[in-house]
Amino acid sequence: MKPVIVAGHVCVDLTPAFDTPPAMEPGRLIAVGPLALTAGGCVSNTGLALASLGVPTQLVASAGADELGRVLVALLATSAADTTGITCLDGRSTSYSIVVDVPGRDRTLWHHIGANSAFDGSGVVDRIEAAARLPGADRPVGEASTWRGAAATAGAGVDAAPGAGIAGDACDPILHLGYPTHLPALYADGGAALVRLVHDARAAGATVSLDMAEIDPASEAGAVDWENLMAQTLASVDVMKASVDDLDAMLPHRSGLEPIAWADLLVELGVAVALVTAGADGLYVRTASAARIRAASRLLRDALPDWASREIWAPPFTTHVVRTTGAGDAAAAGFLAGLAHGRGLAGSALLSAAAAAARISGRPIGDAHELAVAIEPASGPRSGWSIGPDRVYHGPRDKEV
Fold this sequence. Notes:
By secondary structure, this protein is α/β, with parallel strands linked by helices. It is built from 14 helices and 15 strands. Strands 5-4-1-8-9-10-11-12-13-15-14 form an eleven-stranded mixed beta sheet, sandwiched between helices. Strands 3-2-6-7 form a four-stranded mixed beta sheet. Helix 13 crosses helix 14.
């Protein structure tokens, strides 16, 4: 099983409970329910979900050397993920979000960027190279807690032996870089640091995964030419995951594209595998030509027939909505867990949809392994799409059809 380094945006989520949508009326006292204090952001949401899915996971991010930073580190330390890559910076405040998540509707976030503004990817490539050097069971003394045995604590459904960790399979880790749209040091100066980090990570042998987040069009991030930056970056990216909302905000001149068209555009811009989530419409995966997959990471090119020129759709597995916060990050974790476990394209897409369903319905993320095996997609095929024995829908351009 391949280990995963999850790097980038991290925060603390402050989520008050609401029975009804809150009112914003000056001078009025509004009653709310208990406050949930959880680790948030891509590094927390995707990283901890990966650990719950049995994948050896290391977290790399910047927090502040403040009280909230200590709370964040303590929250992360309760998971099976390795947290030695969380750096608390003097003079910086820890990022936080106030999450307004009302049952039955999408959430609203009030966000403070905090120490995320200092994250420039420094040290990430060193961690990739260190992981590649680890010979599994023969790793040096002192590194025994690194990549600690997530597979041993992930619960039922994990298709790796308890305690397997990364023994015998430590080389070529997966790097998942989360929310560069919320990391100013990466997108400053035309995205020079982002381009360098992605290129260097691929050169170090990692399978590179990129996950975007929705931006405020009026912010600094909204002024970035994201299409041009992706054109410089995606030739070195193996997997890019984004939601339709993320892409509408990043590329407003293309706003309104359907999920399939967004996935096609990402492949045209250079990515090997495009994963586009569309809320209640499920998720779409489009992969590049065989020539592009041959230039991808070893993880993809060694299974080239399964990854070249593919077009699949996994509809949602649940209509029972408890919360939507973190659903996209769970979907990313499911897809990466499929990669790490060697499940192939269809298996990874199913695990992605199952992880999102577990998150949305309030079930433990570890249940996604069971869901992916047990649940049949309920939605009917789109025009020209047909379901295969792998339980995902294949598009008219899918070479498997």
